[in-house]
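queue> holo job accepted (thiamine diphosphate)
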Amino acid sequence: MSQTADPANALRALAMDAVQAANSGHPGMPMGMAEIALALWGRHLRHNPANPKWADRDRFVLSNGHGSMLLYALLHLTGYALPMDQLRRFRQWHSMTPGHPEYGCAPGVETTTGPLGQGLANAVGMAIAEKVLAAEFNRPGHDIVAHHTYAFAGDGCLMEGISHEACSLAGTLGLGRLVVLYDDNGISIDGQVKAWFTDDTPKRFEAYGWHVIPAVDGHDVGAVDAAIRAAKAVTDKPSLVCCKTVIAKGSPNKGGSHDAHGAALGEKEVAATREAIGWRHAPFEVPESVYRSWDARGRGAGLEREWNERFAAYTKQHPDLAAEFRRRMAGELPGSWRAHCEALVAKIDAKGESIATRKASQNAIEGLASALPEFFGGSADLTWSNLTQWSAAKPVAGSRPGNYLSYGVREFGMAGIMNGIALHGGLIPFGGTFLVFSDYARNALRLAALMKLRSILVFTHDSIGLGEDGPTHQPVEHAASLRLMPNMEVWRPCDAVETAVAWIAAVERKDGPTSLLLSRQNLPHQKRPFADTAATITAIRRGGYVLADAPALRAVIIATGSEVALAIAAKAKLAEDGIAVRVVSMPCTSAFDRQDAAYRASVLPAGVPRVAIEAGVTDGWRKYVGAVDSRQGAVVGIDRFGESAPGGELFKHFGFTVENVVKTVKGVL
Ligand SMILES: Cc1ncc(C[n+]2csc(CCOP(=O)(O)OP(=O)(O)O)c2C)c(N)n1
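queue> job finished
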């Protein structure tokens, strides 16, 4: 501890100096986990700083993301393209070193963390992806997928409920290549955790079926190294290494105290810490000898070279598999994709079935899965309601891998795990639950949107139309609230054709998640006015299009999902009264909003009054129909919770009837 050349002290110094320079951040965790980081990154982690995207690298997740300076210091010291200048600019605008690690900012950051507990779920997802891909691609004598997933976690991560969801499942699945290092420092923001967190963590994880290594001295590099070795030796269970540490170790007056958790130590204490640990270098100065001891570039290049040679041998023996592996890890769709999709939509359109969109979604999955071996489906214990399974799906069973996972009743865990699977690469995850429970998963959806992940959420039972389960299960505000999330694409299709197109758009979307909002009840097939399938797909993908037109328009009705059929029926009734209206189907408002002004005006012509219909809260529709007091337009919606009754009755009661829509349209003329 007291030697200048101690590489762990370089982490301490960089963390405290960067936090001091920013005058904000968390020095305590990096200083407390310095030896653990040295043991893992110095002696175990198989990575190549020159190629952070090497497919078979070990994954590292800093679940306690507030200690971001630890990760930045590690990336810098081991030789990633993260220059010291970026560490000096910790937490500054447009630096590569934001307050919490953000995926896509600095090379080597595998996931965005900070919302505690979710990193653990991401790590579980990465370990699942590794196992699934290993089973699919490895061949005797050719282990081309064989890496570990390591995560650091603190008390905060383990207090969060999602840690239970994800770690319980990890135990059941026997994820032997997952190793979590727990920073057991007894401190969180409010002080000593013994007043609010007294779980017996080793016993808790043993009960999950984990291999637990308790009571490791987290400041003894040799002890942590030995524990990691023991963890890797157990290959049929995930491992938890419980490391006793002192937060802000090295700081004479703040070490061991929550004062070091979330604020700069202060100039005086930084100086006292330098003295105490014998670090005699100016801020952001690291001696050559320390750089040399951390430098992972040579070893990393060697590891990747060796893998490349193995992959070349694999390619020789299994050229098709190797090409497929490359395609999958690059996130590219198969060459036949476009033609496959067009044929599928044409078939669905020709069939013209009137089915629930959740059933249409299952048909779409079935139709796409034959072209997409990277599909990795699942549901939070609602498989037979969400209809997320397809005929050739292979359920994951215990430690046996497959491509369909029953996540159990764990919506947040599922969404966090799906993020980890998407981050790992090689698979496209989708997972189902009832729309009303999207709230449970919400912060993981937000991180998927922030990280631009291709993760697909199958949210069924999308309105009061689900009926008798009542207001606890009837989403009212959920479509609107998901639409509020930046970069979350929300589709609420009206029939089987729109559902298939929504699925295709979700799969093709490489820079963000998609929520598919699907009905429990049957919805009629709609006839569309387009010349061919390609034109139909193009129109639907615009997010809003003219489904049924009329000359000499008096009004436009905009509707989504189950309310589109109602709009069509109201149009017919209005025609009887000599009132010509156009029906616009708008399955995806954000896609519509991205269209150019000319297109939008061609769908929603200026000066023609509009009525929007959706079985949900009304506010979001005001941007299309005009302000409440403008008298220009109206919304038929539902601004209260539903009721327990048959869906048909509820629609009637809440005004989703032809009579009410006709009346509403007449009211805006
Ligand atoms: C979901 C979530 N809730 C709250 C916070 C705010 N927060 C950041 S760190 C922290 C305490 C974490 O304690 P611990 O994991 O023990 O970290 P340490 O004090 O050891 O650094 C909290 C509550 C957060 N980042 N995420």
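queue> The chain has 28 helices and 20 strands.
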